[in-house]
Amino acid sequence: MSSSLTALDQSELESLLDDLCIGYGFCLPSEEHDKLLANPPQDVIAFVDAVFIAEGLNPETASRHTYRAVRDRVAASFSRSVEKAELDRALGRLGVV
Q1: Whole-model pTM?
Q2: Is residue 88 a part of any domain in this protein?
Q3: What is the number of alpha carbons within 13 Å of residue 3 lying toward its C-beta?
Q4: pLDDT tens by residue, 78-90
């Protein structure tokens, strides 16, 4: 799994942050949530580390199981953003968008 894919699109970013809260208990403080929305890290590992740090956790000492689960969820969002960007480009070339 690559840790460097592409930036998250805004809708995917918002969905991801909601899911990290609801599904994984990473309900970030408002200020940290807003920082991630305004300037999200551009790769999977940096994003996951930022989430852990925003929660007051050290990514180096966090539960490996939890870290991997969050990493996998973040990676899925990055992948969806890549797929969406590629589809948008393809449709644009075809004059569909």
Answers
A1: 0.83
A2: yes
A3: 9
A4: 998 888 777 767 7
